[in-house]
Each structure stands twice: as C-alpha cells, then as structure tokens.
Amino acid sequence: MADKEYVLGNKAREPVKYTIQATKVVTGDVSQRDVRKILQKVAELDDIRDVKAVCQQLIGSLDRTEKKGFTKSGYRDYGEEMRKVARNIVRNIHAANGKMFVTEYEERLRLINEVLDDCSLLLEYIQICVDNGYVSIERSGIWTKKLRDVQYMTMSWRKNDGARAKKLGEEAAAAEDQRQVSLVKEAIRQVKAGN
C-alpha cells in the first residue's frame, strides 16, 4: 500500500514545478539591457533610412509580444498563494505517508483530506487566473491535468485508508465495549463476594 503513496508524493512534485513556472511575473517593460542593445545597434547604422527601418522593426516586435502571465500585483494576489498551496500538497502527502497507520490513522486521514482541500483550492485559483487573463486556456489545461492526477490518486488513497480506519475504529470500539463488560462483571462479582 505504501508504494502508491510514494508514487503520489513523486507525482505531486509536477504541479509544484508547473505552478512555479506558470506563476512567473511577466512584464511588458523593456529592460535596460535591451534598451542598451537597441541603442548600440542604431548607433552603428549610417543611413537614417536604416535607423528608421530598425526602429519600425523593433516597435513591431514589441507590439506583437503580448505575453500572458502574471503582473506583479496579480502575482501578489494569486501567484504567491498558489505556490504556497502547491507546496502544502507535497508537504501533507509526505507528512501523511510518515504517519503510522495503525496508531495515527486519524491524523493521516486529516492530512489526506487537507491535500484534497488544497487540490480543490488550487483548481479554483487556476480558473480565476484564466478568467483574469493571467493564464491561457492551454496552460490551464496542462496545469489542471497535473493537479487532477494528484487529486484522483489522493481520493483513492483516502478511500482505501478510510475503509481500513473504519475497521480499526470498529475493532477498538469492540475492545472497549468488551473491557467495559469485563469491568461491570468484575464489579458485580466483587459485590456478590462481599455479601
């Protein structure tokens, strides 16, 4: 059983990596280094017509490079939190894996449920980012697929561990009931012996 959880832990790395990649800040600003290169290229030209042609070409390329991505404020609003949630998914999978099932099954199930909650939250954030234009439909599809794989494997894990936990809980309750019956019988025996 544990082998599947380790596969899940490894699989959960993919959404983290993709989240970091997809939440990078893009800006339409030209860097100082780019401006320097442009000015050097223009300064090397002798004919004003060549200067005009280079400038028109640069303006055209700047106009065409409309990138989808997070603005600085969009990153602060969503990107930071999305990275945190993705890291929590990995953290909680590994923490749940580290719990001894026989003695800590409640904590393990709690962590598994947190993973599922974080998967749902991250999927919601992805949709919000698509709606706000930070993420393309294509990129959101790839991201969602990676996240859904983790979510479905975690749901299967929860189902299997939930059934095992229920059985352990029932056995513990039956043992406690038996202990209570034994205590009552012993008390009755002592009362009868004292009369």
Q: Give the mean pLDDT.
A: 83
Structural class, by secondary structure, is mainly alpha
Q: Could you give the count of β-strands? A: 0
Evaluate the radius of gyration.
30 Å
Number of helices: 7
Strand content: under 5%
Biggest sheet layout: none
Architecture overview:
This protein is 84% helix and 0% strand. With 195 residues, it is an all-alpha fold. It is rod-shaped, with a radius of gyration of 30 Å. The protein starts with a helix and ends with a helix. The model has no long low-confidence stretch (mean pLDDT 83).
Q: What are the key terms here?
A:
195 residues, mainly alpha, 7 helices
Annotate the secondary structure layout.
Layout: H1 2-11, H2 13-22, H3 32-43, H4 48-64, H5 72-97, H6 101-131, H7 137-194
Summarize the entry for a quick read.
The chain has 195 residues and is mainly alpha-helical. It has seven helices and no strands.
